[in-house]
User: Fold these one by one.
Assistant:
Number 1:
Amino acid sequence: MTRTVHLTVRQAVLEQRSFWRSAEYALFTFAFPLMILLLIGAANAGSHLPGTDIKRTTVFVPGILAFGVIVAAYVNLGSKVAVLRHDGVLKRIRTTPLPSGAYIGGLLVSTVATVIFITAATGMIGWLAFGAAPRPGELLALAAGLVLGTVCFATLGLAISSVITSAESAGSVAYASFLPIAIISGVFDPTFSGLPDWLSRLVDMFPVKALAEVLQNAYAVRPFPPWNLANLGLWTAAGAVFAVWRFRWHAT
Amino acid sequence: MAVRVNGLRMRFGGTEVLHGVDFDVRYGEVFCLLGPNGAGKTTTLEILEGFRPPTGGKVQVLGLDPAAQSARLRERAGMVLQECGFPRQARVAELIDLWRTYYPNPRTLADLLGVVELTEVRNTQVRKLSGGQRRRLDFALALAGDPDLVFLDEPTTGFDPEARRRCWAAIENLRRLGKTIVLTTHYLDEAEQLADRIAILRAGRIELTGTTHEVAVRAGLATRISFTTPSALRRGQVRPPHGIDLSVRGPESVCHTGNAAMTLRLLLDWARQNSLGDLDGLAVTAPRLEEAYLQLTRTNGDHA
């Protein structure tokens, strides 16, 4: 048991080091959400949500937290695993006695570390630049939401990695499969509206909006449909089933 | 025996690609599966490595059943697959060090870097290595657990001569460590250079097994004896020796024989009797694997 933990940690350390060495990964995963946070945040500073005294940035910052979680857990892990599979790194792992759990575990631990870095940076910058802070007593709810979101989107990342067939397209496929949904889910603009009814109902079914609302609710009193948690749970379960069913150690 | 293969059969869908393959590999030897592309070399290796269960026959590697006991096999056998990537941003020493943690009794990092001659690039990122260096890093990773047996699948395919020579040197180093090595190749010179014993695999069957020399002899090849044609022989002042099928090709005289010692004795006697001295330019060439291989593939081609 301790050996598996040790192996997992060693694996995660190399993953993290590699992550920071790769300008492309680090930039997209880390700098991109922060850039959006500052740019769109600055444009909305001072204005309030219509009919309330809630500052726009107070709801916008947790939206970017959700965005950061999704980028780190879903885009980053998903494209990473696709590249590892394409490059034959997964195949090579199979030639060693390393338990597959320790290997996947290492990737997940490294992903969690990236999520922690990115959410900490987003939260701090959001607080310093726009004064956005979680409601008193909601810090635990915020942490729980982040954990739930990380688990859900890391699982979906593993699932999407099996759908991506080339290393070159890995990042784009992962991004393109969630960015439009993120936009119409109101991640960047909490007052985003005017969608046709069917589309807005469809968007409600995806886990992006659910995660954003869970996190936004920790910052300001917002409409909070209880099925958001069920939504994240169901996507996690579906993602896990698909990821396990489709997982391959070598590119086909 | 490090490896025992008995009546090995493999079928993919409706096509059988291995039709009852037999061979043994002894501890400490370099054993080479030689054959053209598509002969079934990689499939055989993948079965030995435990990646595929065979359709039929018996396979034992280090006393283990590779398909059923793959976890135990992987602690004791290093595997270099034909093509396998590295994590792009990892550095050489860092990666080898990580691999060492996978095994109960790893070799030291310095030792591994030395064996594959990568000490100078130990802090280089893997993606900046040349093809030959990457292959040697493959070897280092396969050796990390100090395995008893190392599988190498076409270790130098596509390399330039210099890179091949350095790979061969690395494989020689493995041999010196006392490792049993099973390698596949379609390069004859590679088999000749590295292997203690060779099995020629063709279209899913083992055609011949033995040392390079044995294979050549079993393929029915003769030793070649040649010498500079003496002027007296060329001018017809001396008659050719009896009982030797000597052909005089201008400045060189050549004969082929299955019994080199006897033919040589006859030749030298004949030279002494005719005052031809020690026969200038006398050369005895053992049958080459290349000729055996070509002859084998040719005759089999005729059958097919």
Number 2:
Amino acid sequence: MKIINTNSKEILKDKSVIIKEVIIIIFISILAALVFNYVNEQQIAILYHPYKFDNDKQLTVAQIKKIHKHKEVLFIDARTEDEYKSGHIPDAINIPADMGRSAKMEMLSKIPKDLHVIVYCENAQCNMAERLAKEMQYLKYTSVTVFKGGWEEWNSENN
Amino acid sequence: MNPKYSTILSIIFRLIIGSVFVFAAIDKILDPYTFAADIRNYQILPDIFSNILALILPWIEFFCGMFLIIGLYTRSSALMIASMLVVFIFAISLAMIRGLNIDCGCYHSIGNSNKIGFKKLIEDLIYFIMASYLFLALSLGPSIDRFLKKRTTK
């Protein structure tokens, strides 16, 4: 007993119907996307523009340590909980960039928008810190900086 | 195989893929910003298009999934889902080959267990087989399509 159609002619018979239906689905999706984005609180620009951080110059470990000593900034570790637990910059809090949205929002809601924040992840190649920083910038945090060197650089200076 | 079983199989596949796609889509629709960042992490498309894709793709997933469940444009929805899965499988494979350790952007609310990897590939492959089956199946089970067809042929 055949359960799938192996006759290509028969499948192609409905070609024009399928093309029509695919176009309809794409059309209503685009329409829904544009309308919803217009009313959505989490609205984003149609075309992406990369955000430049306040201080574009890269922070060195020495600078970071100086800032750290003054305790005037909040350090956020954007790596996973396991990575954070296995070692992190003293006093840094952990907000994994890929954690669930609602949990992340709850953690972020405790941080004042005008606090100086330095976000880091493993090293210059990881993108978690940048991702979290961009999200925070989007949420109107005024002073967010990425420490590119991350935990690796901090740790190597300590040893 | 008894044609009754193939119909039951179609209904089960429709419900599984339909709900997976609707569930995954809603999350991304509500949080386009994170999904756009996930798309950029794949480093396949120019960054400038990441937002527009993050806005539209979840809605296509949503409608295709919803249509599969209710049985409207069933075959076309199955075809589109199968095509999307090919793209996802390609994107995940490419990211794995490049050694990127990134979030797959599949479902957000689940959280940490969401990294790309062989598990994700196999998951998508299974959905792809289900969707392809639905596109080619002789019987798709009760649907709005069938109801409309009956009315027009009467």
